[in-house]
Amino acid sequence: MTPLPPGMTPSQVGERAEAAVIAALTAAGRRVLLPFGQDRYDLAYMDGTSLVRVQVKCGQLQHGALAFYTHKVDRHLVRRDYREDADVFAIYCHERGEVYVVPVEDVPLRAARLRLDPPKNNQKEKIRWAEPYKLTDTPIPGLIGDAELQPAEGSDQLILTDVDVSATMPSMTTTQLPLATDLSVACCAPLTEATISAEEADAAATLFKALADPHRVLILNRLLACDDAVCVCELNEDLELSQPTVSFHLKKLVNAGLLAREQRGTWAYYSVVPEAMSQLSQLFKTKESV
């Protein structure tokens, strides 16, 4: 987490970003509207006859990219995205004095990056460049920067001094918002993209649930070290558990698809299912291991 600017609270940082976005949208010829009530977006603007809902975000400069969260965590620690509640993100970069407007559907559900500088590894593909989303071509001069934040007389609370935003607007060159254009830009932050489907995630969760017991983890570990199926009698002795308890854990692992059971006479033999192990290993495969 990037530390807050000296003397500023999270609310003041958010207010600074909202003020910058309002000024940039106004300069771009948009009529800005402020919601009343409990709407889950910060402001809106008119695009012709359509109302565009805007969620304002503060961007963080990270290694030549502008990073920002695309979700929020409520007071119950539940993470929610904005797919149903906003149409665009308006990201304000204080260091550059720039505003970027990104359709909500263009970015992942958790976090995103807009690439400002070319990557050092010369990557050419799967990069979401910031330039197509930029609302203003020039920084917003004199708009609620650190110099405009001053303590109120006789108080340690920060207030905003008057800024003549209208005086800065004629000198600004603007571009149209990117909503009406096709912006099929790939992501430059692969870690924020899911690499498995929802069905695969459900299947993996079933495997993890079956392994949520130390005895089952030990059983799987023992069987992974064996080249052939193992008789249940050997597991009884090795784990120092009663036969019914071992049978209970083995049944859980078989039902989850982690183990295969083979009947040989009066004894049952167990072995690891290779496909299940491959499924688990794919979840933790890093770029270096590919």
Tell me what you see in this structure.
The chain has about 290 residues and is α+β, with helices and mostly antiparallel strands. It has two domains: about 10-190, Trna Endonuclease, Chain: A, domain 1; about 200-290, Winged helix-like DNA-binding domain superfamily/Winged helix DNA-binding domain (Arc Repressor Mutant, subunit A), CATH 1.10.10.10. The chain is about 25% helix and about 25% strand. The chain has helices at about 10-25, 165-170, 200-210, 215-225, 230-240, 245-255, 275-285, and strands at about 30-35, 45, 50-60, 60, 65-70, 70-75, 80, 90-95, 100-105, 110-115, 150, 160, 230, 260-265, 265-270. The strands form five sheets. Strands 1-2-3-8-9 form a five-stranded mixed beta sheet. A three-stranded antiparallel beta sheet has the order 4-5-10, with no helix packed on it. A three-stranded antiparallel beta sheet has the order 13-15-14. Helix 4 crosses helix 6 (about 245-255). The model is unreliable at about 140-190 (pLDDT under 50).
